[in-house]
Request: fold
Amino acid sequence: MIAHYHAQTWNAAEIARSLGVSENTTRRYLEILSGAYMVRVLPPWFENLKKRQKKSPKTYLRDSGLLHSLLGIPTLAALRSHPKLGASWEGFALEQILALAPTRDAYYWGTHGGAELDLLLFHEGERHGFELKYVDAPRTTRSMRVAIQDVGLDRLWVLYPGAETYDLDDKITALPLRDLRTGGTPLA
Reply:
């Protein structure tokens, strides 16, 4: 069940109904899997912004190989045509960032209106945002602009599997995941 909800907002009631158990039981299962470092539970960030913000965590299987196995994805070619490709990339990139992060203050942010930020890190008094996109050429989106404005981001990086670093805006940079350490992020 967690593999199917990978990179999505946790909904204990829905999972409990599917498994035929109580919500408390599903929460305990999640705590066990998180405590065993199999699942990452990324908490939401919320402030008084006069917008309805998401307050449930997102869950990720921390091992992308295990995720692919549980989803029945046997090869890279199969992954490239699978509907969970973007979610798989998001989880993989998230783990790479958090392995390098000098802080444990890591969150995601989202509104019920659809704006979202995949990862929010606080470092030395600054707010750094990360969007994790499996695309050839990232572009600025309305959601990114809303996140910069509403969350008060000092900088936003769009991590993607490409090869070129380039500015999308004065506060937004497209950065290949392989350049995470050298791309001017707080992880460098």
The first strand starts at residue 8 and ends at 9. The radius of gyration is 17 Å.
